[in-house]
Amino acid sequence: MSWPARPPLDPEAPARAAGTTSSAALDLLVTSCAACPRLVEWREQVARNKRAAFRDQDYWGRAVPAFGDPDADVLVIGLAPAAHGANRTGRMFTGDRSGDFLFAALHRAGYANQPTAVSADDGLELTGVRITAPVHCAPPANKPTPAERRRCSPFLARELELAGAPVLVVLGGFGWQAVLASLADQGWTIPRPRPAFGHGAEVTLAGPGGRSTTLLGCFHVSQQNTFTGRLTPAMIDDVLRRARELTVA
Ligand code: SF4
């Protein structure tokens, strides 16, 4: 397994996010973060106890950095790493059913060189897309607390600044709210009332310096959505097709 770099743990890492000057530096800082005691304990406990199917594997057990093309036109924003998915593999959305669905869709849309993602060294490469989350550590029951969300928010804020992506594909209402809050903090003009999340929602926002970005809403690729048919391959394909249209226009 070729893990991302493992710098020493740092409880003050979020405070340094604004000072990073590249996606690589931001990713490295995220992997050092130990700011949330509950999540640090949980991610390490899961990594020690493991799921039976993965008992022979060395879990990552740390904050998971963003993954993909640092010059992406499309930033995909999820919720948080899964305990036995990205918390195991060290790479966003990799190693669980959510990732199976997402990477297959990215491959169909021409953003991924292969449809599968099983580990951090499986050869998967993304072109034109980078994937991140508002919370970088696996939370118990997939539910970060409001304080944990706030603590992790400097990483998303810096990601949005550094990436400067013209299209943000937001998977689920949690990410949608986090992105709008972060852009508002950075001086972007957010309509009132705030645009509501929905699958297929589309809103273009104006930012400082004449920048603009378009948010595209997509139901989250969680098993609850994909196994029940609430989110189908055709539905996410439509969103990614729209993302492509917006970035080649
Ligand atoms: S959730 Fe975010 S702020 Fe909290 S420990 Fe993980 S990376 Fe750090």
TrEMBL record:
InterPro entries in UniProt: UDG_Type-4/5 (IPR051536), UdgB-like (IPR044147), Uracil-DNA_glycosylase-like (IPR005122), Uracil-DNA_glycosylase-like_sf (IPR036895)
Record keywords, A-Z: 4Fe-4S, DNA damage, DNA repair, Hydrolase, Iron, Iron-sulfur, Metal-binding
Coiled coil: none
Pfam family, one: UDG
Domain of life: Bacteria
Keyword Nucleotide-binding: no
One GO process term, biological-process aspect: base-excision repair
Record's keyword annotation contains Iron-sulfur: yes
A molecular-function term among this protein's GO annotations: metal ion binding
Record-annotated Uracil-DNA glycosylase-like domain positions: 65-240
Similarity remark: Belongs to the uracil-DNA glycosylase (UDG) superfamily. Type 5 (UDGb) family.
Name under which the protein is recorded: Type-5 uracil-DNA glycosylase
Source species: Paraoerskovia marina
